[in-house]
Structures are given as structure tokens and as C-alpha cells.
Design a protein that fits this description.
six-stranded parallel sheet, six-stranded mixed sheet
Length: 498
């Protein structure tokens, strides 16, 4: 294969500049450091790159020793989607919990605290928040990642999140434009189709993005969704009508436009990542997110070559690539100028995450319910995790209940026999059943039916979107599965919540 990207001309440097690749390992590989010297301006961190805050700080310092103004990006939404705390669960509740509280000051405070946590680790660019209006209750990929299903609520909390996080010197990337909330398909697997008219989109899905633009979000991420009312032919990531005419023109946005992961099947399975990359930049995107699934030097070479070849063939105007690269450099300058100074050692974010999780908890209890005093059996009815969340991060209430009630035991169950299997495993002990989006999983609802018929004293903890009717001796809706959400629920189960 021709490796045009080995050259050091301005065209190739621009091609490298617009890529935001990931890598394997907890230290930067030689090829990545070399590419930073050749023009690469951004590096993406994922859960595989994280073991501790100290390790991340050392890694980002290693990157900055090679290029001081490097953008270090991460997908850290808090809540269910966490990379900094991928092994333990997040110290911050996610968007749905914050939307349930509906206190924009709290959302701003949580986002600022999370931003400071990122900044302390040397991360200066966060692919968050989700500004999607979760209007489809069967949405398999957004759910608790959204502030809610109400447009105005989502808009005001999106703006508060942007303001809070950027106050810590961390650039936000509001996603997934023009709105991924009304989908029944995960774009990690295929191209979702949103079949509503333009008036609905303008009044519902675009409103939070307008709020983000007004709040000064430094970046916006495109969605790999097909919206025929806006463009009948190409998904948003590859659509000039959506990225340039709508986002830049009608919404007046002048910051960085980043694609969602270009290796997601919605693009990779239809256009291929190389052609998809060139089409995205031509459509108006400025940066290509890649590395969630592909994390090697060959991918960087392949995509940078594709961009250079697209310019030389006339498919991609050289001026468009140069403009995209300059927008990346402009964001780098912003993060450098807004880099926070060292904080005093006694300055901490306190327990804002736990406070928020406690406020988000909704408890529906039978009149005769009394807190648990003996060790229960925790039956986690576990759905398949969506790719954005991943399956590395622990969730549930068992770990926190075990700390509060030593001797607590647990296991996970799924499928048509989950209820009967959980009953047998409990062996007469009090059951705490943990579910996630019961309304989307008929097998899960059936498992609860079986369990509650035999043990009506079962405690039910819903850690997804709480659309199913509350049931059980007590029903706890946490509005997310972050570690602090599990702690807040465990406190309520044993009667120690505050």
C-alpha cells in the first residue's frame, strides 16, 4: 500500500491533525509519539488505557513531553459511561439522574467537579455531554445517558453541563447531532433511521444543541443516523446539509465538529472507514474519532492516506482539510490558554456526586416496609451492555450492600428461566432484585413476576430508565447505574440514607 502519510508536507500534517486515534496500553507506544511529532494533534483515551488517576496523569505528561498542546480526549460522561473509573464505577451520577433532580446548579456543580477530575489527570477534551432527547423509550443506546425525554429539561441541563465542565478548562463535545434520542437501533451496529418531519426535529431534537451552542460548547459530535427530513441520502456524519448548512449555517456554530467513532458499523459497514473519513471531512466535520475498536498505527496511516488521496483526486478540497485542521489547532490553543493551575492539596470536590445520587433516588415503599438488617441475596438481572457503556464497569448494589450488611451474596441472571434460577439461588434469603430498563426486556419483567409471586417481600432496584410500574416491597429508582447510584440505593435499603 502507498504510504503517503510518511511525508512531512503540510497536506499530510493536516491529514494527521484531524484524526483523534486511540491506542493500546497504559503508556504511549513509540508509533504514537512519533506521529505526534509528524502532526498528529489529538489522542483518545479509553478504558483500556486507564488503571488509576496517577497512571493517567503520567500518561498525559508523556504525551505532552512530545507535543505540549496535544488534545487528550476521553469519553467520560459520568454515570454509566465512565473511562476514568472504568474498573470501579463512577463517582458521579449520569445525565438521567441529574435530569431527575432537575437542579441546573447541581448539574453545573457535578460537571465542574468531573471536569476538575479530568484536568487533574491531564485530560482536556471530553466527548460529553449527551444532548439527546430520549423520546423513544425503547432506545437501546441512549437511555440514562440522556437528561430525559423533555426537550426543555434536556436543553437547560446541557447548557449547565457545558458551562460547568468548561469552567474547569476541559472542552466539552456535545453529542450526538442532530439528536440520537428517537432511535430503536444502536449505531454501533447499523444505521438508525429517524422518520419525523423537520418541524418535529427543530422543536424537539435541535433545541438542546442550540442551548449548547449558546453556552459556548467548544465541540459538537455528529451522529451516524439517517434523517430523511434533513438528508435522505447520507447519515449526519457524512452530510453537508446537516453539518455545514444546518449546524454551521442555521445554528451559527463555529467550533469543532467531531464525528462519532468512524469504525462504528453504521459507517464502517456501509462506506468503510477510509471513504467515510474523507466524506465526513468533505461534509464539514473537522475531526475523526477513531480508536474505540481500532487502536493501531495502521489505522492512522490508512486514514491519513485516505485524506491525502481524496485531496489529490479532487474529492476533498484542500481548503476544507486545511480549515478542519485549523479548527483542531484552535481548540488546542483554547485548552492551552485555559489550562488550570495546580489546586491546593486540601481543595477537593467533596461528595457532590453522592449528594446528587441521593437526590435522584426515588423510593416507592409499601406501608409496612422496614429496612433490611440481615444480609440479603442480590439477584442482578443483567441485560447485554451496549457498546458505549461496555461490560468492564461493575454496576448494581451488591458491593455496597455487602459493605453495609456483611454476608450479602450475589449473582447475575438472564434469559427465560432467570426468575426461577434466582429464587433457587436465594435459598430462602431476602431478595434484592436489580434490574436495568425492565420495560425494554420482556424476560426481565417475567423474572420479576416469578420472583415477586413467590417472595412479595423482594426489594426491587431499577438502575435504568424507570418506565415500568414500581413493584415489590420497596421499589428504588436510581436513574442510572453509577457506583454512587448503587451506594444511594444501598443506603435506602438499610435505612441509612441521608
Amino acid at each position: 500500500m502507498t504510504t503517503l502519510a510518511r511525508a512531512t508536507d503540510a497536506l499530510t500534517r493536516d491529514a494527521l491533525t484531524v484524526l483523534q486515534p486511540g491506542f493500546a496500553g497504559t503508556t504511549a507506544p513509540d508509533w504514537l509519539l512519533r506521529r505526534l511529532g509528524e502532526g498528529l494533534a489529538s489522542v483518545a483515551l479509553f478504558g483500556r488505557n486507564v488503571t488509576s488517576p496517577e497512571q493517567v496523569a503520567a500518561l498525559t505528561a508523556q504525551l505532552r513531553a512530545e507535543r505540549e498542546d496535544v488534545l487528550v480526549a476521553i469519553d467520560e460522561e459520568g454515570g454509566d459511561v465512565t473511562r476514568l473509573e472504568v474498573r470501579t464505577g463512577s463517582s458521579f451520577p449520569g445525565n438521567h439522574a441529574l435530569g431527575a433532580v432537575d437542579d441546573v446548579g447541581l448539574t453545573r456543580e457535578v460537571a465542574a467537579a468531573l471536569g476538575r477530575r479530568l484536568a487533574d489527570s491531564g485530560v482536556n477534551f471530553n466527548w460529553a455531554p449527551s444532548a439527546d432527547v430520549n423520546s423513544n423509550p425503547d432506545n437501546p443506546v441512549i437511555g440514562v445517558r440522556a437528561f430525559g425525554a423533555d426537550t426543555d429539561l434536556v436543553a437547560r441541563h446541557t447548557a449547565a453541563y457545558v458551562t460547568g465542565m468548561q469552567s474547569a478548562g476541559v472542552a466539552t463535545c456535545t453529542k450526538h447531532f442532530p439528536g440520537h434520542g428517537d432511535t430503536g437501533i444502536d449505531s454501533h451496529h447499523a444505521v438508525p433511521l429517524i422518520e419525523v418531519d423537520a418541524d418535529v426535529l427543530a422543536a424537539r431534537d435541535l433545541v438542546p444543541f442550540r442551548a449548547a451552542v449558546a453556552a459556548g460548547s467548544r465541540a459538537v459530535m455528529s451522529a451516524h443516523i439517517l434523517v430523511p427530513a434533513l438528508d435522505p441520502d447520507r447519515p449526519a456524519t457524512l452530510s453537508r446539509r446537516i453539518l455545514t448548512e444546518l449546524l454551521r449555517g442555521e445554528l451559527g456554530y463555529d467550533g469543532l465538529i467531531v464525528t462519532d467513532g468512524i469504525e462504528m458499523r453504521a459507517i464502517a459497514g456501509t462506506y468503510g472507514i477510509a471513504r467515510g473519513t474523507a466524506l465526513a471531512i468533505a461534509a464539514g466535520a473537522d475531526a475523526i474519532c477513531v480508536g474505540g475498536g481500532l487502536s493501531d498505527e495502521d489505522t492512522v496511516r490508512r486514514l491519513s492516506d485516505a485524506l491525502v488521496e481524496a485531496v489529490r483526486s479532487g474529492e476533498l478540497p484542500e481548503e476544507r482539510l486545511a480549515d478542519a485542521a485549523e479548527r483542531v489547532r484552535s481548540l488546542s490553543r483554547w485548552t492551552t490558554a485555559n489550562r488550570p493551575g495546580a489546586r491546593p492539596e486540601d481543595t477537593a470536590d467533596g461528595d457532590v456526586g453522592l449528594r446528587a445520587a441521593r437526590r435522584a433516588l426515588r423510593v416507592t415503599a409499601a406501608e409496612d416496609f422496614t429496612p433490611l438488617t440481615g444480609a440479603p441475596y442480590v439477584a442482578a438481572f443483567t441485560p447485554v451492555a451496549n457498546i458505549a457503556v461496555g461490560d468492564e464497569t461493575p454496576w448494581g448494589v451488591a458491593a455496597e450492600l455487602r459493605r453495609l450488611l456483611p454476608g450479602t451474596e450475589t449473582d447475575s441472571f438472564n434469559g427465560p428461566d432467570a426468575g426461577a434460577e434466582a429464587l433457587a439461588a436465594a435459598d430462602g434469603r431476602r431478595v434484592v432484585a436489580v434490574v436495568r430498563d425492565e420495560h425494554r426486556h420482556p424476560w426481565m419483567a417475567a423474572a420479576l413476576d416469578t420472583l415477586l409471586a413467590a417472595r412479595p417481600d423482594t426489594v426491587v432496584v431499577e438502575m435504568g430508565v424507570p418506565r415500568a410500574e414500581p413493584r415489590g416491597a420497596v421499589h428504588l429508582a436510581t436513574h442510572g447505574a453509577a457506583r454512587v447510584c448503587g451506594l444511594a440505593a444501598a443506603e435506602a435499603v438499610v435505612g441509612t440514607g441521608r
